[in-house]
Amino acid sequence: MTKKVDLKELDSKIQSMKKTAEELKQMGEDFPALYRNISRVLASIKMLELNISDVAKI
Amino acid sequence: MISKQKYWNPVLETLPHEKIRKLQLEKFKKIFSWAHGRSRFHRGLYDKAGIKPGDIQSFDDIRRIPTVEKSMMRGIQRKDPFPYGDALCVPLEEVSEFRQTSGTTGQPVYQADTWQDWEWWAESWAYILWAQGYRPKDRVFIPFGYNVFVAFWAGHYAAEKIGAEVVPGGVLDTQARILKIQELQCTAMMATPTYVLGMADTAKSKMGIDPRSLAIRKITCAGEPGASIPSTKKRMEEAWGAKVYDHAGATEIGAWCFECEAQAGGLHVNEAFFLVEIQDTETGETIEEPGRRGKMIITALDREAQPCVRFDSKDIIQWAPEPCPCGRSFRLIKGGVVGRADDITKVKGVLLAPSAIEEVVRGMDGLADEFEVIVDKEGDIDRITLKVEILKGREGERKRIEAQLKDQLRLKTNLGYNLEFHDHGTLPRYDVKAKRFKDLREKH
Asked: Which residue in the set B7, B11, B116 is minimally distant from A43, CB to CB?
């Protein structure tokens, strides 16, 4: 790997994205196209957490 | 640019081992607490053992947690919430995927996954494919019958995830698949070792196509141990002119280990996603040192709908003594999955692993790929018969082959065999998992 990775900074942006996605999900309870798509986005964000956020916390 | 990156996750795959252990412990606490809090099955098991989530502070604490066996899962399924029963940790409406085990050892186990779990499956496979050299420029052919078995489903999703182009070879027959690989110049493929060899045989003998003339340059195997058996791997690599890589996974577990491009004689455990413990089959003691075989107890650290916590997989494995030259800090298991605790059987009082017979047959010049082993009784005495095929044009070498085969079998398995020689192409062929070992003795 050539560039230094700042895990804390990456995690901070991931958490910000997660917060936005969770807010959108709450707003989409009567809006299937929003609710289901944002649920999938949250599953992808979880993969970012597994790859980056979890290790940033140890 | 990313194609030049050696690791799918340059942070996790090179993390110092003490940090991996710390990560595993933290993640284990979470999944244990999740299973205890949401699954009646798991809570019942742990309550009976007197273990609560707050009790887990170390790996020693983890070792005190009861293991889960496949038979226990069979016992709770096909009940409410139907069909998964009490191990389900999410409402049914959050389940997006159904798969089931193949039922090789009994009634199939049903497996629920949420979409997040399914993303996780694909993510685990992305580690595998990237380590085996798959990149966005690859065109990947997947010749498997997309169905209720997990097989290469997640490989398909992972190939898409890493940016490769996927050609699903679903219901096509073998010849149509070979023609499609040829037409599209596919560069990679995923299949069981049995089918990899079967496709090569069909291409050569029925279509006049040398598989080496096709563009396939890497093959990922699953479902059988063949890609970690040196003689079988060699046959596949020579037949296709391609690198053949192994990986191991299971419906109830996930894709937990993989061979990398270094082909160092072992498979990396994805230790960021799985906690693998090796247990002595006699004493139950945890084996930490390399070179000592035991059965695998495994935890999928991030799987939620139907958790896999300290699952007794019956797979026999051992840690490798040396790290892999590829630089990954994920530990290697030497020689892959070398057997199954319930596969190893006693014949004439000798412990026999069927993979040892495969290694001998596939390493024998003049024999075809297929073989069959039958264990039965002659009076009160065990009898073991090995059926093999001589390649066309090599029939004159039968005496030499027979003598070498007997010697090698005696050396590798410590047993004498009745040998039967058959014409090439006459033993049964299999498309997916082969059933070459048949124990016809009465079970007591």
From this structure: B116
